[in-house]
Write a structure and sequence with these properties.
- This protein is of the alpha/beta class.
- It has one domain (30-149, 184-320): Rossmann fold (3-Layer(aba) Sandwich).
- It has helices at 3-28, 30-37, 53-62, 100-113, 205-214, 251-261, 270-279, 301-319; strands at 45-50, 65-67, 73-76, 79-86, 89-95, 116-127, 138-140, 143-146, 150-152, 163-164, 180-183, 186-188, 196-198, 201-202, 223-224, 227-228, 235-237, 240-243, 265-267, 283-293.
- Strands 1, 2, 3, 4, 5, 6, 7, 8, 14, 17, 18, 19 and 20 form a 13-stranded mixed sheet that branches.
- Helix 4 (100-113) packs parallel to helix 7.
- It is globular.
- The N and C termini lie far apart (48 Å).
- The structure holds 2-acetamido-2-deoxy-beta-D-glucopyranose.
Length: 330
């Protein structure tokens, strides 16, 4: 082989190696690739977190999400992290699935692997009080708590929990072998501090306040493919939200949550988003589309979709009001 041919082969080989490396890098971490390759396009994205197929369908149907043409997504731990813009604002979104472990895992991954300035969560919840929230309404809570963390006391234990099962015997209340349960606080871990025991997890006040300003005149969707809400849907600010790994459709337990905690909604995701964001010292906000009322009749698929869509509308209006934070160029 001549010397020139050999040189050509070496150059070709080098090119192949380089091409392979850059493809691998871009697939692994699209945002850091975009953000470190050129200072002019360095910015932080907003993290949009949603739980269900129905939530994602609302986002896709809106036509407002535009996937990034070069790096539309990255797959980590079975989750797909989508890169793009929502009505021109740079975002990443992830569908987490429900229940605290799934939600927390996906939010933590999003925060660890990508440059995210804050978390906007939207999902569905059940109303615990139909006088405050009806299906199709959007709740913007001020605080959320895990209300499924219990110490379950012994039958006839000296110290009684506030949830007394005998109070719910039917048709008459009395004693019940299930005894009582006491709701517990949860540990909040943050960098450089001892873990704290907390019950209410406050929504970041600056974003909560921005949301109350931005969404006060938001017009929500009333009908979807032939199904309409009975009234005009509204955005309700300042409620308290309860989260547990069981979804509350039971009216008696819903009434207990209202009475003991003044909670207006129940879901199985919001407090996970809150705890993970607080642990990582990231700003966050929660939008819940009400899909049913605890103890009420089950909503049809049209109403459930409207609930998702209205929560999505609230999240989008909020996102579009946030200026895109840029990384400083050195
Ligand atoms: C209970 O919640 C409702 C609705 O969010 C609120 O208007 C009311 O002030 C709360 N009551 C107390 C005692 O916190």
């Amino acid at each position: 082989m001549s010397r020139i041919n050999l040189a050509v082969l070496v150059v070709l080989g080098l090119l192949l190696v380089t091409a392979k490396q850059s493809t691998q890098m871009s697939l692994k971490n699209p945002t850091s690739y975009i953000e470190t390759s050129n200072c002019k396009v360095a910015f932080l994205r907003l993290g949009l977190v949603l739980t269900s197929d129905n939530n994602e369908k609302a986002l896709r149907d809106s036509g407002l999400f535009e996937p990034d043409s070069e790096n539309p997504h990255a797959d980590i731990a079975g989750r797909r992290f989508h890169v793009g813009t929502l009505n021109k604002t740079p975002i990443m979104y992830v569908k987490t699935g429900t229940h605290s472990v799934n939600v927390a895992t996906a939010v933590q991954t999003l925060l660890l692997k990508f440059h995210i300035s804050g978390i906007i969560f939207f999902g569905s919840s059940g109303s615990l009080d139909k006088d405050i929230l009806m299906p199709g309404d959007v709740a913007v809570p001020k605080a959320v708590a895990f209300t499924g963390v219990w110490e379950w006391k012994k039958f006839r234990s000296e110290s009684k929990g506030k949830l007394v099962f005998g109070d719910f015997n039917y048709p008459e209340n009395g004693e019940n072998l299930l005894g009582t349960a006491e709701h517990q606080k949860i540990q909040l871990f943050t960098t450089g501090e001892e873990p704290k025991e907390v019950f209410w997890l406050p929504i970041s006040s600056s974003w909560y306040e921005a949301a109350t300003e931005e969404l006060k005149d938001l017009e929500l969707k009333k009908c979807h493919s032939g199904t309409c809400l009975p009234g005009t849907p509204k955005v309700v600010f300042g409620s308290k939200a309860s989260t547990s790994d069981f979804y509350v459709k039971n009216k008696a337990y819903g009434d207990f949550l209202v009475e003991k905690f003044n909670a207006s909604t129940a879901d199985s995701a919001s407090a996970s988003v809150a705890l993970t964001s607080l642990s990582n010292e990231k700003i966050f906000v929660v939008f819940q589309g009400v899909s049913n009322v605890a103890g009420g009749k089950s909503s049809n698929s049209g109403i459930k979709y409207i609930a998702s869509y209205n929560a999505f509308l609230a999240a989008t209006k909020f996102i579009n009001s946030i200026p895109t934070p840029r990384l400083a160029c050195e």
